[in-house]
Structures are given as C-alpha cells and as structure tokens.
Design a protein that fits this description.
The protein is 38% helix and 4% strand. The protein has 95 residues and is mainly alpha-helical. α1 (5-14) crosses α2 (21-42). The longest helix has 22 residues, at 21-42.
C-alpha cells in the first residue's frame, strides 16, 4: 500500500488540516515510510505469543468502588466569598 500526493491532499481535506502544495510530496513519502514499516511488522510471526495488556507485566492497582468524599458540603463552600443554604453565590451573568 502506498499513498500519493492526491491521497494526502484528500486526507488533509477530510481532516481539515491545511497542508500546502509544497508539503504534499514530502508528506506522502513520510506516510509511505510509515506504511512500509507496518508491512515489516506484519511479517513477524506472532503465532505462539500471548497477547499483552501491559509491556511491564504489572497489573494496575484497584480500589473498592466506594464514595468516600461525600457529605462535606460545609468544607467545600468554606472558602467561598459568599454562600447561601450551602451553595455558592455567584453574580448574575445573564439578564
């Protein structure tokens, strides 16, 4: 698979990226290099390789799904310049 200037121009238009005409050919060459590298990766035999979820082999730490910071309304509004009934009071912005 390879891309040419017209394909790069079409991709740029679809992605709404402004690429000058002088940059289309270098961009096509760069994309072709990336595609060539991907084709090389497809040649690697991975039949006996287990799929990895992490390259380090460490599991992410898990915690219990519990609410621990609730019911602190007074602490939340403690530094507010003005409060009313436990809520922030802000200036009216829409008339």
């Amino acid at each position: 698979m390879s891309v040419d200037k017209s394909t790069v121009s079409r991709i740029a238009r679809l992605a709404r990226i402004d690429i000058g005409d002088d940059r289309l050919e270098p961009m096509a060459q760069e994309l072709n290099g990336i595609l060539s590298w991907i084709e090389q990766l497809n040649e690697v035999n991975t039949d006996d390789v287990e799929p990895l979820s992490s390259v380090t082999g460490h599991a992410l730490p898990m915690r219990d799904d519990q609410v621990t910071d609730g019911n602190i309304q007074e602490d939340v509004v403690a530094n507010a310049p003005e409060t009313m009934s436990g809520f922030f009071v802000v200036p009216k912005v829409v008339e």
